[in-house]
Design brief:
The protein has 424 residues and is of the alpha/beta class. It folds into 2 domains: 2-216 and 404-422, Glycogen Phosphorylase B (Rossmann fold, 3-Layer(aba) Sandwich); 219-402, Glycogen Phosphorylase B (Rossmann fold), CATH 3.40.50.2000. It contains 16 helices and 14 strands. It has a 6-stranded parallel β-sheet with strand order 2-1-3-4-7-8, sandwiched between helices. It has a 6-stranded parallel β-sheet with strand order 11-10-9-12-13-14, sandwiched between helices. Helix 12 (333-340) packs across helix 15. The longest helix has 18 residues, at 385-402. The model is unreliable at 278-285 (pLDDT under 50).
Length: 424
Amino acid sequence: MKILLANKFFYLKGGSEYVFFEQAELLKKRGHKIIFFSMKHPKNFSSKYEEYFINQVDYEKGGIRTKISASFKLLYSFEAKRKIDELIRNEKPDIAHLHNIYHQISPSILHALKRYNIPIVLTLHDCKIVCASHLMLANGKVCEACKNGRYYNCFLKKCVKNSKVKSLLNTIEMYLHHKILHIYDLVDVFISPSRFLKDKLREMGFKKEIVYLPNFVNVDEFNPFYEWEEKSIVYFGRLSREKGLFTLIEAVKDLDVKLKIIGEGPIRESLELGVRSEGVGDDGVRSRELGVRSEGVGNVEFLGYKAGKDLKDEIRKSMFVVVPSECYENNPRSVIEAFALGKPVLGSNTGGIPELVKDKERGLLFEAGNKEDLRERIQYLLQNLQKVIEMGKDARKFVEEELNEERFYRRLMEIYLRLVESRK
């Protein structure tokens, strides 16, 4: 089968890109021809299809004319539509599977795909299909104000980077795509990697077909270690407000364990300044809270960005992984990779985290944003070391049995074949 895979980034920018590339490798391994469509970028992996990629779009850089031009592309990219049309004519794919296409690519490509009667599958990596800001957060709190298409709330609440201009643009985008063009009606099947997201979209008024299919992990690439080499716990991922890192740092203060924070993001400087008790940074209020003691927080270490073997080694050395998100996570890769390495997860009880962690089986859950509850759970695990080992083994068994690539491939092929057959 010739499968067109599309994603706006063609390098490992985040968890959705890992899913995108791993899916491509799995399909190639099973004998399918993969046709890529994406955006040009200096960090991109090489591809023989890069001549069809759209030019790089950056909404933050350039002068006012550049930003206005980029804004129109966000709403509807004629370049993307034209280039994917050329790609389709030359390569003649049997089916298209889209991942993150909004903004840089835009759903304009759906019109081109439908013109050639190509079946379309779209994997949902976040809440963008029902939320203009994609995070379902307003002023740091979970927000569902856009329920049933009330997208104007994004502008009223300044949901996009606290900017009226950016929030207005995203609000216009939602009304154009969902109320005027109805462009997502062209997608045949939406894939949700979590039951939570599928159910939440239904609650928000989304009526298209959604199939639950969790992401997989190639367990052969992860060597589990159920014990630990040091008394440490790990957070790895993006360093941003919604990830709950201020809560986590406050929770570990004065505990007899080292917290290792792995990753980069917009609040790293604020976090580090807060830990050193300087009390300034991008998030001055919270960083001052962290610095209430003059000696700072001495058991927190920032390791920066790590990937591959370096990241796995840090996780394997640790006792368990913490995922303290304060937003609606979908199917967090950090949880799945921790499980594959034999580590239980201490996760917040929000989004798709609980269906993976399963309280007291593959880790523990705590109330999102509650530093005292998180602190108690950390202390419990530090005092029940055999339980940590047992939950780590259960976690590894779970990914081996439920999140393996064979199971994922079989269910994905059922979707593909059903749609391709329906076109004959």
